[in-house]
Structures are given as structure tokens and as C-alpha cells.
Amino acid sequence: MKKVYLSVLGFALICRMSAHAQTKQDTLPRLPASYFKPVSLQEDTGYNARALKLDEVNLVSSYYNQDGNHSAVTGGIGTEKVNDFSNGLDLHFSWQGNNKNTLNFGLGYDHHTSASSAYVTTTGLGKKDGTRIYPSLDWTVENAKTGNTFGLGGYYSNEYNYKSLGGDMHFSLKTHDKNGEFSAKFQAYWDKVTMIYPSEFIQSITPAPAGTTYITTASGNIVLSSGGGGRTKEVSLATSPRNTYTAAFAYSQIINSRLTVMVLGDVVKQTGYLSLPFHRVYFTNKKDTIEKLPASRFKVPIGLRLNYFAGDNIILRTYYRYFTDDWGVQAHTANLELAYKISPFFSISPFYRYYTQTASKYFEPYATHAATDAYYTSNFEYAKFQSSFYGAGFRIVPPAGVLGMQHFHELELRYGHYTQTTGLSSDVVSLSLGFK
Questions:
Q1: Which residues in the chain show pLDDT less than 70?
Q2: Which CA distances in Å does 329 have to 127, 363, 381?
Q3: How far is CA 425 from CA 11, 66, 279, 337, in A?
Q4: Which in 116, 288, 290, 386 has the greatest CB count within 10 A?
Q5: 41 lies in a domain?
């Protein structure tokens, strides 16, 4: 059950943001003293407080569909069919004092169906669909004189077998001429994964008297049934922590009136239970077990963005990223997007992304792992493959508002098709509505 679908709403939001000026990552400089200087209301400080106001509302809806034949649930073979519906709401508030404050609230809702999750148990009674809810909150203050920013964010995500709590701290520091900016963002996520085991391994984990049968409920827990109309007992399996810590750095520079450049680099450390117990692995002798991966992973992506304004009607956006980790995966990503303004109020943005990666040293396909291997997975997320993702976006921003409604200022529709050399393919369509 490859959880590609969890990134659908993220894709839609990123696509929407790319239609605007180049997004800046937040950073970590020393805070100027003016942030902490107390203000006496009896002094003439020039302080002009403004009430909290709602600046913008964004609604995003997406549909994602994928298919393939390398499900990790069944050991690297079997259906990868997934359907996902995503909806997101973003509210942008601001208020003005000596400095500008912004408060962004987000709420996302996903509902997915996954054919492979039915095979978590051999009885075929596994959970076939699920729902994820993920609110977020971010506060940022911008110094009125320097343009430097400081902010804090919080996140929560809840799914039937996965709960995540996160937070971040971000800063930015502009150069004196304000043509350059250094930024950094520090994030931490603390996750808990419910230990849903394949049914053939349940008895060794939760032993019960003879004659007891084991089935998985819709909640992912195990039911011990005494049979013959007897009572059942639901056993909640333990959860396991998974922690992720990220430090992201970026420097952006306006080279001239046409060209902007951004250099990006991240450092990511994961610790805890990084396997999934309902991912099966088959050895060369055809005996199966559950996926086993190291308890830590270190990842380093490095990227470069170039945005070129080729006249009033064309913006060329390019992106390259190199990725490496201590599990043996190395990857390259190249992305090209051409935003063409057909009229002052209508633009089209075709895009193409190419991706290639090497296989993890812990990956082997179905029934090729040796029983003596220290770690093993048949999840094709860690396989060697190449992929292509291409499509187009359409954006309208009429001066009188969409459909003549003044506050309905923007509508964007995007479609993308994804193919992978492993046979996986998917389609995603997203609709974004902006209100001011």
C-alpha cells in the first residue's frame, strides 16, 4: 500500500504557489533588537495598531488515481491501485502594529481507497479505505524596516494507523539592498504508527487459546473470536514512535530584472521504527516475513532554482535537485515549467519533471531476499527506476473577479500524468479557488 496519495493536496498547493512569484523558504538569522523593544503607550512611538483582518481564503480540491503491480503489502507483487480525494482550506489573516503579523490556518481532508490494503490479512478483511485530517497553524512577523521575518508553525495529522505532531521555527534575513535573502527553517515531526501485522503473524504476537481465530477490523485492530457465536475481544496492538528532524536552508538572489536564482539545501534525520509491519517480504525459499529496515536514516537533498522572465508574457521556471542518503539511494530531479500569459488575465503553464534514482541497498524484488540479510524490503519506493511527470495548469485572474464576483479573484486548474519504469502510473487533477 504505497502512500503516494498522501502528497496529492501538497501537489495542488505547490502547483498553485508556483503560479505566483518564486516561493521563499524561511530562515534563521539573529533577531533584531526591535522585535523585543517594549513600547510604552504613553510615548509617541508612531505605533498604529490595526485590527486582525482576513486577507485571503484559498480552497483546493484534488483527485488522484494510481495503478501498478508492485504492492509492498503483498511482497512486491500485486495491485497498487489507489484513489484519493483531497480538500484543503487556507485562511490568511494579518494585523499591523510596528511590524506586520500574519497568521495562516490550514485544514486538509483526504479520503482514499487502496486495493492492496485488503491483503493486510490473508482473510481479505483488511481496511480498504481511510481518512486523513491535518490542520496546521503558522504565525510570522515581518520587520517593517529590514524586511526580516521570524515565525513559528504547528501541524497535526491523524489517520487510522498513523498520527503525527509537528512544529517549526523559521527566519529570514534580507541583504541591505533587499535583492538577496538567506532563509532557514527547522522542523520536527513526532509520529506514531499502529503496528498492523499480516494475519499469518498475529498469533505469535497475541497468543490465544486453541480454536481462536484472528481477523482485522476496519480500525486496524485484531479481533480474537472464540467462534460458535461466542464473544470477541479486540486487541489494540502497540504503537511505535518515528521522529523526523529537518534543517532547510536557502539563499535567493535577484540577478537582474529578468533572472532570479535560489540555492537550497536540506539535512534530514529520521529515527525510530521506519519499517511498516504490514509490508511483506518473501525470501528465496518463498517463506514470508515483515519488512525490516534500519532504525535511522540520514538524507541530504541539494537544489537549484532559476526563474527567467523572457518578456512580459513568458516566465521560465527551472529546478534541479540532487538527493543522497545512507540507505544507498541517490537521485536526480529536473523540472521545467513555462508560464505563458495569453492575455493580462489568463495564463497557461505546461510543465515536465524527470526523476531517476538508484536502488537502496536494502531492496530486493519479490522472493529474492536471502534469509540471512540483516535488513530487507520489497517496497518499490526504494527500487531503481526513472519517472516522468507532465501536464499543464490554467489560471485566470479577471479584474472584475471570476464570474463577475469581485472577491472571487482567482481560479486555477491543473492536471498531471505520472509514469514510472516499474509500471506505476497515476493521474492527478486539482482545482484551486482564491478569494480576497
A1: 1-50, 121-128, 199, 202-238
A2: 31, 10, 10
A3: 16, 6, 21, 21
A4: 116
A5: no
Spell out where 284-424 has E strands: 288-290, 296-309, 314-325, 330-343, 346-357, 385-396, 408-420
Give the per-residue pLDDT at 31.
Answer: 32
User: Which domain range does residue 212 map to?
Assistant: 197-236
Please give the pLDDT value at position 33.
33
Q: How far is CA 112 from CA 12, 121, 127, 191, 315, in A?
A: 16, 19, 11, 20, 35
Q: Quote the DSSP letter at residue 23.
A: P
Q: Is residue 328 a contact partner of residue 364, using CB atoms and an 8 Å limit?
A: no
CA pair distance 386, 331, nearest whole angstrom: 9
Q: List, in sequence order, the alpha helices (H) in 97-222.
A: 202-205
**311 plus 330 within the same structural domain:** yes
Are residue 140 and residue 244 in the same domain, yes or no?
A: yes
How far is it, in rounded angstroms, from Cα 428 to Cα 369? 34
CA distances from 153 to 129, 150, 167, 168, 243 (A): 30, 11, 5, 5, 17
Q: Which pLDDT tens digit goes with each residue over 401-420? A: 898 888 999 999 999 999 99
Asked if 276 and 289 count as a contact pair (C-beta separation under 8 A), the reply is no
Whole-structure pTM value? 0.81
- Pairwise CA distance, residues 363 & 383, whole Å: 6
Examine the domain organization and report whether 79 and 166 are in the same domain: yes
Same domain membership, residue 305 and residue 291: yes
For 281-291, the pLDDT digits (tens) are: 999 998 989 99
Residue (of 312, 357, 315, 309) closest to 336 by Cα position: 315
Model pLDDT, residue 127 = 56
The separation between CA 162 and the C-alpha centre of its own chain, rounded to angstroms, equals 14
The owner of cell 524527470 is 354
Same domain flag for 206 and 289: no
Question: Do residues 171 and 210 both lie within one domain?
Answer: no
State residue 205's pLDDT score: 56
| SS3 state at 426 | strand
Q: Within this chain, do residues 18 and 89 fall inside the same structural domain, yes or no?
A: yes
CATH number for the domain harbouring residue 382: 2.40.160.40
Cα(31)–Cα(281) distance, integer angstroms: 51
Take residue 385 and report the three cell numbers written for it. 527506476
Query: Domain end: 236, 253, 285, which one?
Result: 236
Comparing C-alpha atoms, which of 320, 293, 351, 248 is closest to residue 28?
A: 248
364 and 351, same structural domain?
Answer: yes
Domain contains 39: no
